[in-house]
Model the fold of this input.
Amino acid sequence: MSPESQGQNEHYLSVYRRSFRTWRGNRPFWAGLFTMLGGVPIAYFPYANMHLGNMTLAMSTTAGAGSLIIGVLLITLGLTMWFHHIVRVFAGVASILLALISIPVANIGGFLIGFLFALIGGALSVSWVPGEPKADEPGPAQGLLGEEEPELLGAEALDGSSFAKDGQAAPVHPEGALHGMGVPEQQPAQYDTTVEVDGGRHRAG
Done:
């Protein structure tokens, strides 16, 4: 077998496994499986014979037909859970009722094996709900600034709390305080009136 054919077979197996996983996740798979496994011993034991050496033990009872009907119904309900999971609640309740009826009718529910499987399968079918898709997460384009943050930044800029270039925050003035503030009075520059001329000092004025 060539390496290419091995790679193709592995690819096909991974595709089948993935598709089966998707199919299994969209329906109560384990509920249907347990329900069908519960129907097999309930229908089988009343018609089975055990051989102990030269002695044959027949486990058939007068309710053999009832056991067969219960077993076939459980298998049918298990298939219904797989291929028509909309009625999963009805199928689960029916499986639980048939499991309880099988105790006095079908050899104590197939020696309690079929009873337990059918009971667990019915309970799983009733409690199963389809999954909900996940909500879309925000993309990286939105980043640190969401839809509300620019509005907050704009409001802060109007209030006078924006940062200066040197990293120091500008003073925040209360609303209407700027209207009453006047222009600061300019003070005349102070000049040194002493001038040095020919090694001496003369004062102007």
About this structure: The chain is about 55% helix and 10% strand. Residues 67 and 106 are 5 Å apart (CA to CA).
